Amino acid sequence: MSTDSNKVAIVTGASRGIGAAIAERLAGEGFTVVVNYAGRAADAEALVTRIEAAGGRAIPAQADVSDAAAVARMFDAAQTAFGGIDVLVNNAGIMKLANLADSDDALFDSQVAVNLKGSFNTLREAAKRLRSGGRIINLSSSVVGLYQPTYGIYAATKAAVEAMTHVLAKELRGRAITVNAVAPGPTATALFLDGKPQQVIDHLAKLAPLERLGEPEDIAAAVAFLAGPDGAWINGQVLRANGGII
Ligand SMILES: NC(=O)c1ccc[n+]([C@@H]2O[C@H](COP(=O)([O-])OP(=O)(O)OC[C@H]3O[C@@H](n4cnc5c(N)ncnc54)[C@H](OP(=O)(O)O)[C@@H]3O)[C@@H](O)[C@H]2O)c1
């Protein structure tokens, strides 16, 4: 166990994909992890069991991040259970692709609700409650920069998350809390793979000079760096973890 053994991290959207890998990695580094999820209770509980079997400490926490009251309750529960919160990883997110001309209101509203309002809800709580020495890590995306067709609304929500990252880093002056974003490129999770023909996946996998998709563990490593002692001097930055795609 590392020096982070008394620290508490909330990871949103940790029932699968990148969030699950982040939760497992941080637990392995000694953080007590709050495994947030919206719908997949069984997956979140299985992850907690896996973390505990490896000697770590975790609890599952259901909360739809787009629901401000539910987010506040989750922070309350973490504070009551563990005495405080040190790290927020804002990972919960959804992606729905369509040209702007073909995007209906529901497609816009759902992505704004989870990716943007959800991040705002958790950032607001974290800004009030994180202990000195804390870390906030937001998940953006390398589509902010690539700006491919069909990614307009999704990219807009992530650009907004990056904007809040920069602003909150400055607002927390004097609290010894860093605020950064990690912006993955194409990463092998359901969010990226579902609904894409294999040839599109193969094409996107070859775009980065490292010529493969990211794995959730690649992104977890970047988040762990920012959450751990070696990331202490990084603040207000966006770290693109993408094999060099942009
Ligand atoms: N995969 C990529 O290529 C890629 C690239 C760039 C950025 N990202 C970003 O990385 C993050 C993780 O993506 P992923 O690929 O791991 O996605 P994923 O496999 O679809 O997992 C998404 C996670 O978010 C949770 N979630 C969704 N809506 C939620 C809500 N309203 N409240 C709480 N949790 C919610 C899901 O929980 P339940 O299923 O339990 O509801 C699930 O655990 C996202 O922010 C995504 O935008 C991904």
TrEMBL record:
PROSITE patterns: ADH_SHORT (PS00061). Belongs to the short-chain dehydrogenases/reductases (SDR) family. It comes from the Bacteria. GO terms for molecular function: oxidoreductase activity, acting on CH-OH group of donors. SUPFAM superfamilies: NAD(P)-binding Rossmann-fold domains (SSF51735). Residues 7-185 form the Ketoreductase domain. CDD domains: THN_reductase-like_SDR_c. InterPro entries: KR_dom, NAD(P)-bd_dom_sf, Sc_DH/Rdtase_CS, SDR_fam. This is 3-ketoacyl-ACP reductase. Keywords: Oxidoreductase. SMART domains: PKS_KR.
